[in-house]
Design goal:
The chain is α/β, with parallel strands linked by helices and about 350 residues long. Helices cover about 30% and strands about 25% of the residues. The longest helix is centred in the last third of the chain and has 17 residues. The structure holds adenosine-2'-5'-diphosphate.
Length: about 350
């Protein structure tokens, strides 16, 4: 075996998979080999990587035999189907799906927030939900100064969270509507072009959708605050690949706006972008393709003396998914954590 890490991407042809390939190259990840895996539909497809042409393989049992690290973004059921094989083969799985995020023996990591959680992995590490990552990046630095008492968030989510096909569908919908035709709706239940609708993940008994409950549960797990009071409303907007969120934070004591700005201006992976004179704040068309989460419009909540309001925007495919996963992989390399100490039995 040549020195370096043998990497496989499961879901290599998807929106996140494509970005993972680019990020491994751009960030000079020490991969000695890269295996591209997808469904049999994509077998034989060619994708460039570091000046070579790699051929996509259909995922199979043998595909994981000589692999150290698997970056997966092929949906929850595909991760469920292959996780045990991956772990049994001695590889570490960094999984972008929601399949294992809340499992007790699976660390859920945003490297800027809880890198220490990686130390005790048992072969699987979960990458959080995109909206959770972006929000965590903006609010955790404030939480470290003063613990958050209550958090209310509303999201404005782009099409990319539903995959490459959904992004194409929004473009096709816009074209169809402009042509006076019926817009196609396969990836989404309703037309998203020229429209907005509450997130279409399934509804829970309490009336929250799964996406909203992911924000609640995952944030608590990442922050290590199981009782944190959070309520979320998640909404799809006709934007291709960057999400926005409004966040209202309540603290025990007033949190001066100036101090919040200072804290956020210095936080890793964040850019404070506020031009109050020109009413110019983070926007998806400018945050698309960027690594950082952009935050701005930080203001005192006029309805509560200990409340703060803020606005953020970040690329869903990059920091919301692929970049965070590659940063987790970099953390595993840096801390020599690519060996599985105690293999998990995958039963979540
Ligand atoms: P394929 O392109 O062959 O369907 P996105 O989230 O952008 O929709 O991408 C999903 C990714 O997951 C794609 O690479 C897709 O491959 C892959 N995928 C979907 N279902 C499976 C499966 N059953 N086995 C392996 N890969 C899958």
């Amino acid at each position: 075996m040549s020195s370096g890490i043998r990497v496989a991407i499961l879901g290599a042809t998807g929106a996140v998979g494509q970005e993972l390939i680019q990020l491994l190259e751009q960030r000079s990840f020490p991969a000695s080999e890269l295996k591209l895996l997808a469904s049999p539909r994509s077998a034989g497809k060619e994708i460039p990587f570091r000046g070579e042409t790699l051929t996509v393989e259909a995922v199979s049992e043998q595909a994981f035999a000589d692999v150290d690290l698997v970056l997966a973004s092929a949906g929850g059921s595909t991760s469920q189907a292959w996780a045990q094989t991956i772990v049994d083969a001695g590889a570490v799985l960094v999984d972008n799906s929601s399949a294992f995020r809340m499992a007790e023996n699976v660390p859920l990591i945003v490297p800027e927030i809880n890198p220490q959680a990686a130390a005790h992995h048992q072969g699987i590490i979960a990458n959080p939900n995109c909206t959770t990552i972006l929000m965590g990046m903006a609010v955790y630095p404030l939480h470290q100064v003063q613990p958050i008492q209550r958090l209310l968030v509303a999201t404005y989510q782009s099409a990319s969270g539903a995959g490459a096909q959904a992004m194409e569908e929004v473009k096709a919908q816009a074209q169809a509507i402009l042509n006076g035709e019926t817009p196609p709706t396969e990836a989404f239940p309703y037309p998203l072009a020229f429209n907005v609708f509450p997130h279409n993940s399934s509804l829970t008994e309490q009336g929250y959708c799964q996406e909203e409950m992911k924000m609640v549960k995952e944030t608590r797990k990442i922050f290590g605050t199981p009782d944190l009071r959070i309520s979320a409303t998640c909404v799809r907007v006709p934007v291709l690949r960057a999400h926005c969120e409004t966040v209202n934070l309540e603290f025990a004591e007033p949190f001066p706006v100036g101090q919040a700005r200072e804290v956020l201006a210095q936080a890793p992976g964040l850019i404070l972008q506020e031009d109050w004179e020109n009413n110019y704040f983070p926007m998806p068309n400018e945050t698309t393709g960027k690594d950082e989460v952009f935050v701005g419009r930080i203001r005192q909540d006029i309805s509560h003396p200990c409340g703060l309001e803020l606005w953020l925007s970040g690329d869903q495919i990059r920091k919301g998914a692929a970049l965070n996963a590659v940063q987790i992989a970099e953390l595993l390399v840096k801390d020599d954590l690519l060996k599985v100490q105690q293999s998990a039995t995958v039963s979540v």
